[in-house]
Protein: TSN3 protein
Amino acid sequence: RSFAQSLLRFLGFIFWGTAAAQVFGGVLVILMFKNYRFLFQESYLSLPGWLALATALTLLPTGALAVSISVKCSRNQQGTLMYLLLLLLCLEMSSAALAHSYCVRTASQLESAMGYLVHQHNWTCSQDPGNSAVEVIQRKLQCCGVHNYTDWLKASSSWNHPACVPESCCKERHSHCRGDLGHVEQLSEEGCLKKLEDQLCSAMLYIFWCCIVLSILELLAAVSNGILMRHQPFRELRIL
Structure:
């Protein structure tokens, strides 16, 4: 019983700490899909982030109850803690399943969306607009094209442009770069698709593993709470 009390107190403080981790992951996913909303048609892709925020809010009273029960056992508090742990387990399993599923699903959607932006983007070698969606992505991620700069060569042939790429493909340290293919070393080698996938999947996998670890801790808390409940029988039924 003393070990169960100590473990429950420790897990209560851990729940408060993991609430901050869940807030970080949820905000990260929500902001990412907000910044790249023009690449995704579905608005529900940020759902794992909102579930993570809901989990963080539920973790705060759960941690407080766990600490309180470890000091003074109360049948009402023990029952409430069990309900909160069950609610958290449902939230986290849903969030983990959605995060893993979206990480796999969005890969093909990103490729088609980026390909459409590249092939529909009209630019000139002498004057780069620099304010379109694809330009913003290339500057922010320091990438060029979908897979590499050759994607712009295919697009330039459809627009009857000379062989060049937008200036947003240039590396930051080359201030005099104008997208000339005669200086390929001044262009970003990596395509935007891989960087976007890595960024998206990193955020989703962060939420996934947070939920898995937190679910294990909640099962330990439920077992510890069950041990304490076993040592405190229902007093209202003793008369029977």
